[in-house]
Amino acid sequence: MDLDFKNLALFVRVSEMGKIGRAGEDFGFSSTNASQRIQHLEATLGIKLFHRSTRVVSLTYDGQVFLEHAKRLLDELEETRNVFKGERNKVQGIIRLTVSASYGRIYIVPFIPKLLALYPELEIDIDFTDKQVDIVEQGYDIAFRMGELKSNSLLARRIANNPSVIVASPEYLAQHGTPNTPQELSHHTCIPFAGQHQWTFKDKLSDMHEVSVKGPISVNWGDAISDLTEAGVGIGMASLWHAGPSIKAGRVFPILSDYRVWPETRIWAVRPPGRLTPVRIKVFLDYMETVIRQTNHQRYGDELNTLNNKIK
User: 303 with 257: CB under 8 angstroms?
Assistant: First the structure.
């Protein structure tokens, strides 16, 4: 397949402006020539990219899918040009990333202003979603993920550990008592995450303990578990990065600290396979790994040290 990169760039510009003629002007093309170039691209791909009307054009479904691939191809071309122009170390271009809303709000957004101040030619496009998306199909450069990675084809970089704790409010414990073993959780009201009713623990002797938990509500958002736990609805399982400030403030207490929630998980930054690492991606990940680990220490460093000492 012979793709003209000028046509790709024109296609991306048309998708942004909604008008072929006006987009063509940015490249010095006449309205007729711009239309011909889009038609040639459609013929090359064998798909229709735009719905056309007398006033504007809009992307078809195939056009929406191809748009992310076109952007990626153009990014890679620009990166290659920079290598041969001696600008390999210039930090510029767009980073498209996806991250969960809760994690992104705490660990990504606060540090973006400083990053952009350091690298003013950098652009960042963030999609906040708790769904695990196909980053190759949807054209993302980076996705932050927690837990076990399901795909071996993605390039993964460990950003930080992701320890979890079992917590409950002082009011709940005063009213219902404090469980001392995982098995006692079956007699308590718990708040499962996304319908995960089987909780597993590892004790000091490396013996495993699995217990079925139940409660009147199950949610798939960490913020909601924190709110419900602090309100005394029940016992929750939470990542320490999420629960650390509440523990520090005394709004919840960690329980079952002689056991580790199992399996232990990590936070990863994953990227599409088979690609050189553009300098903007490397700079972004290096920076984020540093500030994330610093933030972890500030949010729950003391609590983690206490739990580690108890489990030894």
Answer: no
Domain endpoint, select from 49, 82, 115: 82
Dihedral Cα 165, 168, 169, 173, nearest 10 deg: -140
Whether 283 and 143 share a structural domain:
yes
Helix 240-249 vs helix 222-230: crossing angle, to nearest 10: 20
* Residues of the domain holding 238: 164-263
Q: Which residues pair with 211 in a beta bridge?
A: 199
Asked whether residue 107 falls in the same domain as residue 229, the answer is no
Angle, helices 279-311 vs 240-249, to 10°: value is 50
Taking the C-alpha atoms of residue 248 and residue 225, their distance in angstroms, rounded to an integer, is: 17
193-229: pLDDT as tens digits: 888 999 999 999 999 999 999 999 999 888 899 999 9
Res. 27: pLDDT tops 90? no
**pLDDT tens-digit series, residues 47-100:** 999 998 777 889 998 998 888 788 878 877 776 666 555 544 578 889 999 999
What is the CATH classification number for the domain harbouring 141? 3.40.190.10
Of the CA atoms within 13 Å of residue 286, those in its CB half-sphere come to 8
